[in-house]
């Protein structure tokens, strides 16, 4: 099947700038080569992350892959070809993952906004059967980032946590993982007024409306503050003595722990039982999925910063 294909459709950009100006629909992109440790995936769905437009805007030119490139980190789809060293997957398997192991170091030239993409075996996992392709595509980068952040601060049962930006892609998963996987004693999270109910549904014991309250002025302090929005300095005021702050937004003022995700399918495999039982759920923005033809609209919406959970593009033809 994949053998007879030489060119594919993809959204690509040849220069840096805003998506609406530089992202173009290309019907004649070369099919990427499959290395020995990779599989070729027929893409069913992709999800967008803030890193996609930051990369498009040229914020990490020095270590970017050569242009033209197709954006997209998160993918779900079907394996159509396997490299000679691949052991975990076979043709026909439904898989998902964040295809770029190091987010900022030479990401794939053909990302997930394409009919086909390649990924190393180690960054992928089998898609839980109860999840649609759109739901699966929403998970990898966000849920892995949430998990890695909790691991980095040594989060464990009985600890309390405050999540800044609880309704975003990463925040929705920090709430769920802290509560349902790690066994937090208390989960607090911030959002705008409209999204408070979602925070409670996901497992937050305390939902804080940041338009009406300053979290740093609350009398209650927390073992961990997980900052997904770039408010590290204020976060220090909300931590208990001996508590920790972890952030995913540079520059990240020390002693906060700043990290950039290393993508691995191992986290997805570890979380599979929680996803299959519905203890941990994908959170898709009500405006998604966007069809493949509306990638520009999807990017414009992503850049408003008003997305709830994740923004998904599905189906990809």
From TrEMBL:
PANTHER family documented for this protein: CYTOSOLIC ALKENAL_ONE OXIDOREDUCTASE, NADPH-DEPENDENT ALKENAL/ONE OXIDOREDUCTASE, CHLOROPLASTIC
Example GO molecular function: oxidoreductase activity, acting on the CH-CH group of donors, NAD or NADP as acceptor
Residue span(s) of domain Enoyl reductase (ER): 18-313
Organism listed in the record: Vicia faba (Broad bean)
Phylogenetic classification of the source organism: Eukaryota, Viridiplantae, Streptophyta, Embryophyta, Tracheophyta
Keywords, sorted A to Z: NAD, Oxidoreductase
InterPro entries according to UniProt: ADH-like_N, AOR-like, ER, GroES-like_sf, NAD(P)-bd_dom_sf, Quin_OxRdtase/zeta-crystal_CS
Domain of life: Eukaryota
Similarity remark: Belongs to the zinc-containing alcohol dehydrogenase family. Quinone oxidoreductase subfamily.
PROSITE patterns for this protein: QOR_ZETA_CRYSTAL
Name of the protein in question: Enoyl reductase (ER) domain-containing protein
Record bears the keyword NAD: yes
SMART domains (UniProt xref): PKS_ER
Coiled-coil region(s): none
């Amino acid at each position: 099947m994949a053998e007879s294909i030489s060119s594919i459709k993809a959204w690509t950009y040849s220069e840096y700038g805003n998506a609406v100006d530089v992202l173009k629909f290309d019907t004649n992109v070369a099919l990427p080569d499959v290395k020995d440790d990779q599989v070729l995936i027929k893409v069913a769905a992709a999800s967008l992350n803030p890193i996609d437009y930051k990369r498009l805007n040229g914020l990490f030119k020095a270590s970017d892959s050569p242009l033209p490139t197709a954006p997209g980190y998160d993918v779900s789809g079907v394996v159509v070809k396997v490299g000679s060293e691949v052991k975990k997957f076979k043709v026909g398997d439904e898989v998902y993952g964040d295809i770029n192991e190091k987010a900022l170091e030479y990401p794939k030239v053909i990302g997930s906004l394409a009919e086909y993409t390649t990924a190393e075996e180690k960054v992928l996992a089998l898609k839980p059967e109860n999840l649609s392709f759109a739901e699966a595509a929403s998970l990898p980068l966000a849920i892995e980032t949430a998990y890695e952040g909790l691991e980095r601060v040594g989060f464990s049962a009985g600890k309390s946590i405050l999540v800044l930006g609880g309704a975003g892609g990463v925040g929705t998963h920090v709430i769920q993982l802290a509560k349902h996987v790690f066994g937090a004693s208390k989960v607090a999270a911030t959002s705008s007024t409209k999204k408070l109910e979602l925070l409670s549904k996901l497992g937050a014991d305390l939902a804080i409306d940041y338009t009406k309250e300053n979290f740093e002025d609350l009398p209650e302090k927390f073992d961990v503050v997980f900052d997904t929005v770039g408010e590290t300095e204020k976060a220090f005021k909300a931590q208990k003595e001996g508590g920790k702050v972890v952030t995913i937004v540079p520059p990240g003022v020390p002693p906060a722990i700043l990290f950039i995700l290393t993508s691995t399918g191992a986290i997805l495999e570890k979380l599979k039982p929680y996803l299959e039982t519905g203890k941990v759920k994908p959170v898709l923005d009500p405006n998604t999925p966007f069809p493949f033809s509306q990638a520009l609209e999807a990017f414009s919406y992503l850049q408003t910063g008003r997305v709830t959970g994740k923004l998904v593009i599905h189906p990809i033809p």
